[in-house]
Amino acid sequence: MTTLSSLHFTGTVLLASTLLLVSCQSKKAENTETTTDSVAAPQKKLPKPISEPLVTDIYTADPSAHVFNNKIYVYPSHDIESGIAQDDLGSHFDMKDYHILSMDSIGGKVTDNGVALDIKDVAWAGRQMWAPDAAFKNGKYYLYFPAKDKKDVFHIGVATSTSPTGPFKAEPSYIPGSYSIDPAVFTDTDGKSYMYFGGIWGGGLQRWNEGKYDSAGSKTDLMKDDSPSINPRVALMSKDMLSFSGAVKEIKILDAEGKPLLGKDHDRRFFEASWMHKYNGKYYFSYSTGDTHFIAYAIGTSPYGPFTYQGVILNPVVGWTNHHSIVEIKGKWYLFYHDSVLSGDQTHLRSVKVTELKYRPDGTIETIDAYYK
To answer: 281-301: buried (b, 16+ CB within 10 Å) or exposed (e) per residue?
Structure first.
């Protein structure tokens, strides 16, 4: 889940501007009932987007796209207006369930398959079901999701189903050894699966050291600007896909000279929104830089890294956050992402979109601008 943090300029945290909250109303979507937030009129002129929302009856964000049985499934978070005051830890991102979207082709009809998992059916969860991911293995579909437990600490849970659209049944507790947010599960060509996860600030990754949580730790990443930046985590999944097999490891993201990116390098350092894909035998680790709003990427030769920073995949979008996935569909590559044009530049009422992603001959990715100039 992409969190809201105050903008960072030369080490100073500025207060986020006050946003106009919108009201909620109930509306029936095709084959399901959903909660719909009414759209606030934009307070400023917004740029013309290159892509339209996949659905407009509910707000969706943080899309994790997959192809199962030659059909496209998108696993997003479900934005709602909960009435919770905005803060820099993302408390107003108070999602309570997941809806799964499906389509036969890019540009085709998109179906909202209704509620696949509700927080009331997750025994260990307290609040905030943020950005999920999904996987298929062992004849089952797995939905991975972050939520805060009863002590208000983020962990990652897993739920299973025989259908890619659910309903999903959650395991009694979160994955042992999991923490923070934004799970992304990648299955390599050898059949091994890995989970990438973590998010600083609201995601709390900066409060974890060697798998132990420090409740009194810093709420931001601004304490050690001249040290290597806080990095995402990776863990090999067990064969049953319900736990980790072995220790959680920290990923290294390096510059072109092989040096770690520093905490003050907000244009390039990791913030949240991990994603892994493989192209021409190389591993592409992509992520959000958070308060500078880029989707960036780094390339390595192992799923564990290290990864060398390459550049920007997606420039900043309308709304504060940025979160994505990358998937190959019928020989073409696509970037799924979100923005807040539909809701009128709200931070927490976003809409999932998709556009084609293109590689250069050397394997680097062409930077995408989500708006016409």
So the answer is: eebbbbbbbbbbbbbbbbbbe
